[in-house]
Amino acid sequence: MPNTEQIRFQTKVCYIESQGVLKTPESTLKLNLSEQYILSYLIDNYGKPVTKDELLNVGWPDRIVTEASLFQVIRALRVKLNEEKKGDVIETLPRVGYQIREFTREAIDLSESQHLSPLKRVGKKTALLSAITLAVITSGIAWMKYPYTDSPKNYLIDKDRVGSNDFTFITSNAEDLADLRGKVKDIIKKQTEKYGEVTTKNQQIYLYKTDSFYSAAWCTVNSSKICEKNTDFSYKIVPDEWDQFADIVINNKKKYHGTPIIHTENTQEPTSIAYASYIDKSGIQTKVMHLFLTPTSKDGIFNYSMMSFIQEKETGMFHPLSISAAKAKLYNKNSQFLKTVKIEPEMFHWSYQPSANFDEKQSLALKHSNLIEQGFNNNKPFFSYLVYKQPHLVLMLDNATGFVWNKTSDEDPSVIFSYRLSSKADK
After folding, report:
1. How far, in Å, CA of 198 to CA of 202, rounded?
2. DSSP 103-155
3. Beta bridge partners of 50
4. Residue 124: count of CB within 10 angstroms of its CB
5. Which of 17, 46, 182, 264 lies 20 to 30 angstroms, CA to CA, from 111?
6. Which residues pair with 170 in a beta bridge?
């Protein structure tokens, strides 16, 4: 291949227009067609403003789209161009449009294989997964602190009873415990002021806090302290959206589970289905996980694979998120909970494709999946804690994901975690 040209921006990211890729010393990222058209047009018109209408015509030449699509592309380009602050590469001109900042043109030689984009060498399917992963990482999701350690985390656990409700608080320190207690007190006060009484009754409630999110799980229990059918809910909440979550609790709003239907040649009933609702500004409402646990030839060790999906708030549509595989075994040391399970990573693949309906930077679901991917890439084991169990229902906790209820089939994980693993691994 003869010499070609790349555009080097002030952020040290280079754009190779002939290949439609952005390159840094560490990575190569393929842009979609609309991103390529718009970035190239801005470069071609360097030194003069470009209107939104121009970019709408350029980015989508064969169809009509709204300005929301343009905003999504500009936002994605800012992230992929590594803008530290808005306007480092693409300048917004109020009431006009956009303009590209200063750049340099460089000749490069792509004739040798080592200079080719990794996306061209690895094949279409792997390239798609690589591009998805890079898109998620460069969206800022990778900057969360990696939370896993080589041994189970030691938590501060406290319990309260308020009326007919039992609370379990799980935190890392006394300050977070005080914060959770204060938030519960405030919810109860507002509920009483509005209805004349505490209308939340007979619930088993679990609350967990980290630096980046709150997690809450609960179910309504009967006289035998067993969760009633379809009353199990779990939420993950970004700190600045707590008031939205509190409104759900104060007014006893019902959120029902939705399950994606999967049809493949090798359809297999999952060992369990886990549900989690998200309260953030991403446009993602729910994450659904299909878990598969199968015994291996080694005593007390199970294959632990998972398929994840996320649901749009507005349309209710489900989108594939990720596929992973690991080994699960009981951790043979004293646990603060019913059981501690050690998960040893084997494989993680993104299935997620960026959507104009989602704001990836705001998404807890994507942030947590990215943390899990980091552990898989670094072969870092993580721990999942069995907090509560009853027939066909278990509540699990880990320090990155928070609480998740698992509705189980006949291959009941509560049985696996509580009996099968212990009967073999604890010998």
Report:
1. 11
2. EEEEEEE--SGGGS-HHHHS-HHHHHHHHHHHHHHHTTGGGSPP---SSPPPP
3. 98
4. 9
5. 46
6. 157, 208
Q: Which amino acid type is present at position 71?
A: F
Report whether 119 contacts 134 (CB < 8 A): no
Over 90: is that where the pLDDT of 112 sits?
Answer: no
Measured from the Cβ of residue 249, the count of other Cβ atoms closer than 10 Å reads 21
What's the mean per-residue pLDDT of the chain?
A: 78
pLDDT digit string (tens) for 198-235? 888 999 999 999 888 999 999 999 988 899 988 888 88
Q: Which residue has the higher pLDDT, 352 or 102?
A: 102
Sign of CA dihedral 135, 139, 143, 148: negative
Q: Where are the alpha helices (DSSP H) in 45-98?
A: 52-59, 67-80
b/e code 395-416 from CB counts within 10 Å (16+ = b) = bbbbbbbbbbbbbbeebbbbbb
Per mean pLDDT, which range of 13-22, 24-33, 303-312 is the poorest?
24-33
Q: Which two tokens stand for residue 171?
A: 């935190």
Strand locations in 298-368, DSSP E?
A: 301-312, 318-330, 339-350
Confidence (pLDDT) at 242: 93
Per-residue DSSP letter, 221? B
**127 falls in which pLDDT band (50, 70, 90)?**
very low
Sign of the C-alpha dihedral computed for residues 142, 135, 257 and 390 taken in this order = negative
**Cα–Cα distance for residue pair 395/393, rounded to 1 Å:** 7
Which residues, at least 6 apart from 402, have a Cβ–Cβ distance to it below 8 Å? 208, 210, 213, 214, 215, 234, 236, 276
| Tokens describing residue 326 | 């690991």
> If you count them, how many residues does the chain have?
427
Torsion sign (Cα): 278, 282, 286, 291: negative
Tokens representing 68? 């929301």
Helix 174-195 to helix 242-250 angle (10° resolution) is 40
- Output the pLDDT for position 123: 36
Q: In what order do the strands lie in the sheet with 97-100?
A: 50-51, 97-100, 90-93
Phi-psi region of 398 (alpha: psi -120 to 50; beta: other; left: phi over 0): beta
Distances (CA, A) of 57 to 51, 68, 285, 390: 10, 14, 32, 58
